[in-house]
Amino acid sequence: MGPSRIISLIIAAFYVVAFVLVLIYEAASDGLSARNVVEQTFFGLFWLALSLGCIWYGDELGEGLTGARCGLISEPSPG
């Protein structure tokens, strides 16, 4: 596991902790419904997983565009 993956995982952990604290605060002050909590949790985890995927697999994503039909991409882009 490279240093960028470890750093991104640490930052993601801070985001999860902050997200949980905000949800607890919002639920206590506004009385959020269970559906809102589930929707916000799903969206937050989806966005976090997508962001981590772009960081962790950036090289593979850059190689996937080589040889596009428009012909403008001639070599892989760096991750």
Describe the structure.
The chain has one domain (3-63). It is 72% helix and 0% strand. The chain has three helices and no strands.
Q: Tell me how many strands there are.
A: 0
Instruction: Report strand %.
Output: under 5%
Number of domains: 1
Order of H and E elements:
HHH
pLDDT < 50 runs, ≥5 residues:
none
How far apart the termini lie comes to 16 Å
Helical element count?
Answer: 3
Question: Looking at the structure, what is the overall shape?
Answer: elongated
Structural class: mainly alpha
The overall pLDDT, averaged over residues, is 78
Please render the helix and strand layout as text.
Elements: H1 3-30, H2 34-56, H3 58-63
Helix pairs in contact: 1-2
Give keywords.
79 residues, mainly alpha
Task: Quickly describe the structure.
The protein has one domain (3-63). The chain starts with a helix and ends in a 16-residue tail after the last helix.
